[in-house]
Specification:
single chain; mainly alpha; about 0% strand; Small ribosomal subunit protein bS20; rRNA-binding; Ribosomal_bS20; RNA-binding
């Protein structure tokens, strides 16, 4: 149990940040799923558009510290490769 005022404040702040970060990660996952569903459907134009929309969201996740830069780099590389492989 937090006894000091600072510890109580950290608990409040951590709860707020966890909610914000969770929403941010969920939003990024949604963008990635849109790309993957377009790839699965074989629609190259839609997949490329979804990928262009997902890239800044993924980069924002890195800059905000909710995702590791190597994770985002790997995911973006694999998605780009899959989109370019579509006929």
């Amino acid at each position: 149990m937090a006894n000091t005022p600072q510890a109580k404040k950290r608990i409040r702040r951590n709860d707020r940040r966890a909610e914000i970060n969770g929403a941010r990660v969920s939003r990024i996952r949604t963008f990635v799923k849109k790309v993957e569903s377009a790839i699965g459907a074989g629609d190259k134009a839609a997949a490329a558009a979804a990928l262009a929309a997902a890239q800044p969201e993924m980069a924002r996740g890195v800059s905000k510290g909710v995702l590791h830069k190597n994770t985002v780099s790997r995911k973006f590389a694999r998605l780009t490769k899959a989109v370019s492989a579509l006929a």
